[in-house]
Model the fold of this input.
Amino acid sequence: MSEELKLGQKITVNTYLYRSSEMRDQGQYKYWNEFKSIPKEVMVIGLRTLSNGYNQYLADYGNVFYPDAHLSAVLVVENLRSKPFYILHPSTRKEINQ
Done:
């Protein structure tokens, strides 16, 4: 998969991102996890920046999210009637693997 992704481009993927959370000392920690799946052909419909971080409740403000990491993702869809999903952008994958 090339790093120059264009809207409407068809690519083959075998992973997707999903949101996970767990309780820690600072509050609820939300992060993106990568899940392996069967290879499928998808179409690129957008580029997004996703964040990992803490969600805390403050009495005066309600829930506040404090991001501590950012990653680039690609929004893709399998067909016109399916729900879009995120995959890790190739440039982000290189940063993680270094």
